[in-house]
Each structure stands twice: as C-alpha cells, then as structure tokens.
C-alpha cells in the first residue's frame, strides 16, 4: 500500500503525527493516485491546507475500524455505492450538514442522512458488436434476457459490485420475482462462464466470442485512449439503455467524513471543494466519468458519445437491495 503526501512518501507514524494539524487534512483513498492528486494540489493551492493521503486497493474501512479513536483519517474516498455503504454500515462515517454539498449534489446522489456524497457518475452501458448487432436491435436491460441472444452475451462475475448494483436496480424497478426471471434469462444467454473485468468483455466481442456485453461507460474512454485496446472499443457501439423509460443505471465514486475526524473543519472544506465546478470538471475528465454537479461540462471525449437519460433512482435504494441481489445471483447459479 502506498502512503503519499503531496507527491512524497510518508510513513504511517508521520501521518498520525500530523493528524490534528490546523492546516492539514488526511484522506484514505481507494481511488488511484493519478485520479485525485491533481484535485488535492488545486485544493492546497486555493486554501493553504495540505492534503495527506494513504492509497490502497482495499482494506481501508477495516483499517479505520482497527485504528478506532486514534485514527488520523478525516475523509474516505471510494468507488461504487455498495463500497461506500459498507463504510456507513461499519459505523466509521459521520453526517455532514453542509448547504454547499446539498446545493451541488442532487438528492438521489447523496445519502438521505448525509453520511456519504457522490463525486462522479458512471453509467452501466451495453456494448454491442458493430458487425453482428444491428443498431436499435437491443435497447434495454430487459432485452438482455431475450432468447434471441442465447450464447451471445459476455459479462464479468455476477457478484462483482458493478453488476450487483445493476441487479439491485432491476429489483427496485421491476420487483424481485420479475428481476429473478430476468436474471435467469440473462444467464441462459451467456456465451461463457462470467470472467474477467469490463474491458475483457469488450475484447471478447472484438475476438468474436460474444456479441453483447455490459460494462461501465468510462471503460470506453480508457480503451479508446489505450493504443493496445483501441481496436476493442472500435469494434463496438456503446448503448445507453432504457432511454424510452427510466434511463441508464448509474453508479458513483464517492466520499464520506470519518467519525471522529481530527481535522473535521478542513475535511468539510475539502469535501465542498471537490463538488465545486473546477474540481468536478477535472475529476470527471481524468477518468472519463460524468460530473455529479449539474451544469458542469463533460469532457470532449465523453460528450462525443452522446447525451442520455439517467436513472434517478436514489442510490440509497440500490444499497438497501444489495444483499437481495447477491442472494439472487446465488439462487440462479449465475457464476456457475
């Protein structure tokens, strides 16, 4: 695990020693350094408050729990509604009553009890072969269960957080019984056992192993920007589902204030800064995501994919149904 403060290596003991400084704020981040360091540098330049960061791929909530009242953590940054809700359920977050956050972030993209706040959005899109799927032939998530696609769909594991969020949204919109029937239909249409990440599914389309896949929108940008993967993206059309109905299912990257944060005031200032116009534009552009603050321009590449209707289902509802979605995946044997 890397420990970074403004671009320099920092030991854990040093981070603890700085915890109560009036001009510092400590962030535990599950987001990669290249995504957030430009934001922290801008924040420090504007406010004079130094941002100390610990980066990790996993385990930060458990670390905060183990550190207890001695934790230097002020802010947690993570991805996916399920992961940020796990922090809330673990009891390590605290409410933030901020007029700025409420003004910048629509209600369905923040916790009803102010325990977490979205920072960026990504859609759960459908990718379809340009050569083997006619435009307009698939338009909704429900279409994924149509028997016409038998043996033609690839997905990653059904228990991955990104798919669980989608499945939970299907339960929320269509009810548990209909969602289970749909998931059984999707499973029967799989070309192979669920495997790999979102980009691996698009690669499989390019290689002719399947014709349709499900993946987050920002991966389209990542593939287009990678010379080794551009051919994968060029082989597919990106489809925004359910545009004549509820809209495309959305997920987030987000943040939460840590309970007992030693630099609480500075932490709130950072959280508010991250939802402002300048930070929202930088943060969304660097990872091909969508800003959460209305009115902030999309990056040129993301805008080139077209506009869409987004599902405004409160993400708290998706978090509430996560356990039901996991059980449903097991019941239909999706990963078998």
UniProtKB/TrEMBL annotation:
Pfam family membership, one: SBP_bac_8
Alphabetized InterPro entries for the sequence: Ferric-bd, SBP
Keyword list, A-Z: Iron, Metal-binding, Signal
Residues the record lists as binding Fe cation: 218-219
Molecular function per GO: metal ion binding
Record-level GO cellular component terms: outer membrane-bounded periplasmic space
TM region(s), chain numbering: none
Segment forming the signal sequence: 1-22
Domain of life: Bacteria
Similarity-based family: Belongs to the bacterial solute-binding protein 1 family.
Name this polypeptide is given: Iron ABC transporter substrate-binding protein
């Amino acid at each position: 695990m890397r420990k970074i403060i403004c671009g320099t290596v920092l030991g854990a003991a040093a981070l603890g020693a700085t915890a109560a400084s009036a001009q510092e704020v400590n962030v535990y981040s599950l987001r990669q350094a290249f995504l957030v360091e430009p934001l922290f540098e801008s924040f420090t330049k504007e406010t004079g408050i130094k941002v100390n960061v610990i980066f990790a791929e996993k385990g930060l909530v458990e670390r905060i729990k183990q550190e207890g009242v001695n934790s230097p953590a002020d802010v947690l940054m993570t991805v996916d509604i399920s992961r940020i809700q796990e922090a809330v359920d673990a009891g390590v977050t605290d409410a933030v009553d901020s007029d700025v956050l409420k003004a910048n972030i629509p209600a369905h993209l923040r916790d009803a009890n102010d325990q977490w706040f979205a920072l960026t959005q990504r859609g759960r899109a459908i990718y379809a072969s340009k050569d083997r799927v006619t435009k307009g032939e698939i338009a909704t998530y429900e279409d994924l269960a149509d028997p016409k696609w038998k043996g033609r769909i690839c997905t990653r594991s059904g228990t991955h957080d990104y798919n669980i969020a989608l499945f939970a949204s299907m339960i929320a919109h269509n009810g548990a019984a209909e969602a289970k029937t749909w998931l059984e239909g999707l499973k029967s249409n799989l070309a192979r056992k669920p495997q790999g990440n979102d980009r691996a599914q698009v690669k499989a389309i390019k290689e002719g192993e399947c014709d349709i896949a499900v993946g987050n929108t920002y991966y389209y940008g990542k593939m287009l920007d990678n010379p080794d993967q551009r051919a994968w993206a060029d082989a597919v059309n990106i489809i925004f589902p359910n545009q004549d109905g509820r809209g495309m299912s959305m997920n987030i990257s987000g943040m939460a204030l840590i309970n007992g944060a030693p630099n609480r005031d500075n932490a709130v200032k950072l959280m508010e800064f991250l939802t402002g116009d300048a930070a929202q534009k930088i943060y969304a552009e660097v990872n091909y995501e969508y800003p959460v603050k209305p009115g902030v321009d999309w990056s040129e590449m993301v805008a080139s994919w077209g506009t869409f209707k987004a599902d405004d289902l409160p993400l708290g509802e998706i978090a509430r149904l996560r356990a039901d979605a996991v059980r449903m995946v097991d019941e239909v044997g999706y990963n078998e």
